[in-house]
Amino acid sequence: MSFIAHSREPSMPRRRASAAVLVAFPALCLGLARAQPGAGARRATPSQTEGPFYPVQLPADTDHDLLRNGTLQHRGGDPAWVEGTVADLQGRPLAGATVEIWQCDQSGHYHHPGDGGRADPAFQGFGRVQADAEGRWRFHTLRPVPYSGRTPHIHFKVRQGARELLTTQLYVEGAAGNERDFLWRNLGRDDRAALTRPFERGADGWRASFPIFVAAA
């Protein structure tokens, strides 16, 4: 699969210039240290419950395109590209890490026996990809919708080989149900910011970017 990489002052007398540099130097060094890739630890992406609907049996089709399940083409809901990177807490990409997502269909149903087998058969419901050399991953899926008391969300799981590194959920910025959702409501401010991302409309549907940082050591 392919990925899309996604995104002098006026002169002064010498004495005044020297004084300005001496004053600015500590702040400049601090700014560079914060800006340099790999400088300092990142904040780990918060974990969340797996929930009741991780597939009991994985579908035969588990690729990045959840809108095509085998020979069936999904036609409902709002198509969305959900993409991002996965890296360790030093900002180093986790090449080859496995990223999984699962979510309900446009009517709020999961491919799971606990949801009564009512999910749209044309919606794959689950996808799995490996991050590329730069840690990038990408899924073609649905903009998530609410179901039975939950605000719109997509479940995520990150693995490295046999190790499970993270299970979490991605939320939609500005969704009306966020404040009423018991899991979202119990997140702290920084954790909400890490897991709640804008879905923006583009020429090829909705699009959201979700950077993931995990402790991989």
How are the SSEs placed, and which strands pair?
Blueprint (H helix, E strand, L loop, with lengths): L13 H22 L32 E2 L2 E2 L5 E10 L9 E5 L23 E5 L5 E7 L10 E8 L2 E10 L9 H4 L3 H7 E2 L2 E3 L2 E5 L2 E3 L3
Parallel strand pairs: 3-11, 3-12, 8-9
Antiparallel strand pairs: 1-2, 3-6, 4-5, 4-7, 7-8, 10-11
Describe what this molecule looks like in 3D.
- The chain is α/β, with parallel strands linked by helices.
- It folds into 2 domains: 8-40, no CATH class; 68-214, Aromatic compound dioxygenase (Protocatechuate 3,4-Dioxygenase, subunit A), CATH 2.60.130.
- Helices cover 15% and strands 29% of the residues.
- The chain contains 3 helices and 12 strands.
- It has helices at residues 14-35, 182-185, 189-195, and strands spanning 68-69, 72-73, 79-88, 98-102, 126-130, 136-142, 153-160, 163-172, 196-197, 200-202, 205-209, 212-214.
- The strands form 3 sheets. Strands 3, 6, 10, 11 and 12 form a 5-stranded mixed beta sheet that branches.
- The longest helix is centred in the first third of the chain and has 22 residues, at 14-35.
- The radius of gyration is 21 Å and the shape is globular.
- The two termini are 28 Å apart.
- The model is unreliable at 1-38 (pLDDT under 50).
